[in-house]
Amino acid sequence: MEELIKKAARRGQKTLSEYDSKQVLGAVGLPVTQEKLALSQEEAVLAASVIGYPVALKGCSDKAAHKTEMGLVKLGLKDAAEVASAYAEIVDRAAGLDGVLVQEMVSGSREFVLGLTRDPQFGPCVMFGVGGVFTEAIRDVTFRVAPLTTEDAEEMLEEIRLAKLLDAFRGSPAVDRKALADALVEIGELGCRLNEIAEIDINPVIIRGSQPVIVDALMVLNGHKP
Amino acid sequence: MDTTGNNANLEKFFNPSSVVVIGASNAAFNLGATICKTLKEDIAFSGDVFAVNRGGEDVHGAPGFKSVGDIGRPVDLAVILAPAAVVPGFVRDCGENGIRNIVIESSGFSEQGTDGRRLQAEIAEAARRHSMRIIGPNCLGILDNRNRFCCLYGANQLVQKTVQKPGTVSYVIQSGGVGGLVVERLMEDLPGVNKMVCIGNKSDVDESDFIDYFTTDNTEVIGLYLENVQRGNKLMAASLRCPKPILVYKSGVSEAGSAAALSHTAGMANNDAVFEGACRQAGLIRLRSPEELHALPKMFIDMPLLSGKRIAVFTNSGAFGSIGADLLAETPLAMARFTSRTRESLSRLPGVFNAGNPVDIGPALPEVYLQIYDILLSDPGVDGLLHVVGMWRDYVADVMSELVELCRRHRKPAALFCFNSMARVRTARAEKNLPLFNTLEEAVRALVVSHQQFHYLQKKEKKRGRAH
């Protein structure tokens, strides 16, 4: 996992692709979506049948940070025919993809954002807040300086304005706070351990039932370090 | 970390037995001369004061010399007020003559571009070579009311007055103007200033060093005014070591996140959001205005900390009872729900209009006030009191003095606010040392920060326990 990051940094990559970012997060125990990188239409259809419908397809590349805007994301594909045509459409739109990511669809109405940034005075800092496409408009986020204790992480969950979303809500059970807090602690550990990681965006984390699932992630690498 | 060595180094900044003011002369508008005048004429500083200037002339009774080397006696502290370009030379002179503590009040350093940064680096190099500790450059200086020492330049009669009333709040102020604010306001308030130090560009000694120092001296409350934090983790570590309340006001909150950030996280991480998180993590009480630096410390002097969130409001004005309840609703605190026993006891008293929360009374005798205090503080569902009262008779101040005693006995705090009879209020504050807040908002904030400190103390103990 560390090798993956160091190699990408050596190659001069600015970011890790969604697939690679989630490989790193999954390796340290964070709950990421079930997914497979397909290199052909046939592989995509096969992967989708293994994962189970509906699935999402996403064009995958470290240069594709804004996949939705580039038309590289196809959601809610219900059968092999839809997967095959979505695959063709995605590879048609962008050259130089690593492949096409076939991913389980995660449904849940509550979305959060987790992240890492490096502050010039405080060093690596972990963020938690309300996620989804309106994250920056809502700006309901809070920070802690890494490394975090479990109590630090638990406090973060309670201090966003919309903390009520973590409780039982409109028929959904309360969010597994421990799972979220553990994830925040772990992100802080990554920031302390690997200087090659400059920033991490994990958005959205969708709550399925009570469990957080990382649906999209982006790791920004530190180009200044050799 | 062992901070003993650090503190021993800093002691001479506040309690020097001899001081040289470098750059003090008899020229018109000379700033160094104002320091000589303060020390020799205004506050009767007990140690030796020397002046260094080109002519070697005496300044306000301080013997003058052409250079530090000519003084011929050991000197504890040098205060430098000379043009930036010649400061590094003076710092080296001090180092070679055994002076280990230096306050550089001159400006023209890192705050002023490349040349200034180069001069500041030269100073830092000299300081390292001679193991000197440096405050500044670009700062106002130091005030110690207890040791009767002051090297603030341009200080006026204010200093004469403030050293008469040494207090218990110590301040670290990055920029001089706020220093004047807190010193002047606290002359008329309960706690008073113990020490104040302006740190300016903090090329060497910074706010964290002084938190460590104030952790071990006779300070009871620490106030910080910061414009930037250069060593974030050092500040957090110092705060976690300190059991005393640390109140911090930081300016510059609007600074935007890095425009070059690729991720949303970095885009939303402006320095204020990160600082806020660091404060909560390390137990620094963040203030909302510079006024809170002098308004809130009194809550920590005689009152126990607020250990829970349930507040009883007690008033002799229905209006202010409602306003108090509204203000509390905007905080993490809550209105207490009284036990039936409390309600019954209250309703039996003469003059009680409302035996619920807020408790509202009409014209009543002192005994009634005292009984209500006792009933409310004895209720297990009440953690603290917000007392909003019109001082319609002199005895209101007397019963409030007793309330402070009752609070100590019950280990529950009260925040006091009087909404009328300002002359009586001023007298009560001066003669009875009552912790009266200037506004109802301030009194509510005092309860909030008291509870915050209670929570922070527990957190600090836990984190320290884990570190051992």
List keywords for this structure.
heterodimer; A: about 230 residues; alpha+beta; Dna Ligase, domain 1; D-amino Acid Aminotransferase, Chain A, domain 1; 2 domains; 7-stranded antiparallel sheet; 4-stranded antiparallel sheet; 7 helices; B: about 475 residues; alpha/beta; Rossmann fold; 3 domains; 7-stranded mixed sheet; 17 helices; about 40% helix; about 15% strand
Structural topology:
The complex is a heterodimer of chains A (226) and B (468).
Chain A: H1 2-10, E1 15-16, H2 18-27, E2 35-38, H3 41-51, E3 55-60, E4 73-77, H4 80-93, E5 99-104, E6 111-119, E7 123-130, H5 135-138, E8 141-145, H6 150-159, H7 177-193, E9 197-208, E10 211-214, E11 217-221
Antiparallel strand pairs in A: 1-11, 2-5, 3-4, 3-5, 6-7, 6-9, 7-8, 9-10, 9-11
Chain B: H1 4-14, E1 18-22, H2 31-42, E2 48-52, E3 64-65, E4 77-80, H3 87-96, E5 101-104, H4 113-129, E6 133-135, E7 142-144, E8 149-150, H5 157-162, E9 169-173, H6 176-186, E10 193-198, H7 207-216, E11 221-226, H8 232-241, E12 246-250, H9 264-268, H10 271-282, E13 285-286, H11 292-295, E14 310-315, H12 318-329, E15 334-335, H13 340-348, E16 352-354, E17 359-361, H14 366-378, E18 384-389, H15 395-410, E19 414-418, H16 422-432, E20 436-437, H17 440-467
Parallel strand pairs in B: 1-2, 1-4, 2-3, 4-5, 5-6, 9-10, 9-11, 11-12, 12-13, 14-15, 14-17, 14-18, 18-19, 19-20
Antiparallel strand pairs in B: 7-8, 7-10, 16-17
Helix pairs in contact in B: 1-7, 3-4, 7-8, 8-10, 14-15
Describe what is shown at a glance.
The complex is a heterodimer of chains A (226) and B (468). Chain A is α+β, with helices and mostly antiparallel strands.
CA-CA gap between termini of chain A: 18 Å
Count the domains of chain B.
3
The residue ranges of chain B in which pLDDT falls below 50 over 5 or more consecutive positions are none
So how many helices of chain B?
17
What fraction, in percent, of the residue positions of chain A are helical?
A: 25-40%
Estimated share of beta-strand residues of chain A: 25-35%
Task: Give the CATH topology of the largest domain in chain B.
Answer: Rossmann fold
What's the level 1 CATH class of the largest domain in chain A?
A: Alpha Beta
| The CATH topology of the largest domain in chain A | D-amino Acid Aminotransferase, Chain A, domain 1
The second-level CATH architecture of the largest domain in chain A is 2-Layer Sandwich
Order of helices and strands of chain A: HEHEHEEHEEEHEHHEEE
Largest interface: A-B, 37 and 29 residues
Number of strands of chain B: 20
